[in-house]
Amino acid sequence: MSVPHLTTIGFDADDTLWQNEQFFRMTEQRFVAMLAEHGEASQVSANLLEAAKRNLGMYGFGIKSFTLSMIETAIEVTDGRVPASTIAEILAAGRDMLSHPIEPLPHAHETVERLAGAYRLVLITKGDLLDQERKLAQSGMGDLFDAVEIVSDKTAATYARIFSRHGDGPQNSMMVGNSLKSDVVPAIEAGGWGIHVPHELTWAVEHADAPVAAPRFRRIADLGELPTLVETIARTG
Fold first, then answer.
1. What single DSSP character describes residue 104?
2. For residues 72 and 234, which has the higher predicted lDDT (pLDDT)?
3. Which of 21, 127, 195, 213 has the maximal Cβ count within 10 Å?
């Protein structure tokens, strides 16, 4: 049996290539302030998290789902008496998120540019289709990727399918991202490499234990370390 040879690298987008979670946190603080007279901030935030988790199966990931969860939470904590003006404020907050300029993370563009051409690069991200397309276009990195996959969820089956479609199968592929739950663990379960690039903010739903015993797990401090790691893996396996 031949030794798998790294040919394909998948990149997560939000909080891997550009900032994302910080805008959700800022909007949550804005939302909590809107409902200050109806409940403690911690309780409103807890209700919002539960609503968001309930709604993932119905609305998926992203800003539109988050906005609907804020509206649902406002109705809940006000016992159905939320003013129309507050609903309008929530919708405005969602629109602000959808129009916010992207903020690339350190070393993102230079790293993707350095690896482009030498490997097949695939952007694999969850969220709203239009929003993710907007952010990719603003990033200036769109032309560096050989393929873009905007998916409803990230599982081992998702990675097996994508890396077989755009590469030589998961055994010859690597997934790079900030979420252990979505980017790293399922990629390793599919048979690929899982590279964790921690971000200071991670949504509670994305928390998972690091698969430290897995031979194909690696952690790097930032994307600037990725090219050297890729070279090492490509050389030694």
1. B
2. 72
3. 195
99 burial (CB, 10 Å; 0-12 / 13-18 / 19+) is exposed
Residue pointed to by tokens 């990727």 = 145
Q: Alpha-carbon distance 204 to 168, whole Å?
A: 33
For residues 19 and 105, is the Cβ–Cβ distance under 8 A? Answer: yes
Q: Please check whether residue 199 is in contact with residue 178, taking contact to mean a CB–CB distance below 8 angstroms.
A: yes
pLDDT surpassing 50 at residue 2 = no
Residues 6+ apart with CB under 8 A from 114: 227
Determine the residue type at 70. Answer: M
List, in sequence order, every residue forming a beta bridge with 147; answer none if it has no partner: 122
User: Could you tell me the two tokens for 230?
Assistant: 């890729």
Q: Is a pLDDT exceeding 70 seen at residue 217?
A: yes
Decide if pLDDT at 36 tops 90: yes
- Give the C-alpha separation, 142 to 173, whole Å: 20
Using alpha carbons only, give the angle 8, 149, 152 rounded to the nearest 5 degrees.
Answer: 130
Give kind and range of the element (H or E) at residue 150.
strand 147-151
53 has pLDDT over 50: yes
Mean pLDDT for the stretch of residues 16-26: 95
Structure tokens at 173: 């592929």
Identify how many contiguous H helices and E strands the chain contains and give both numbers.
9, 6
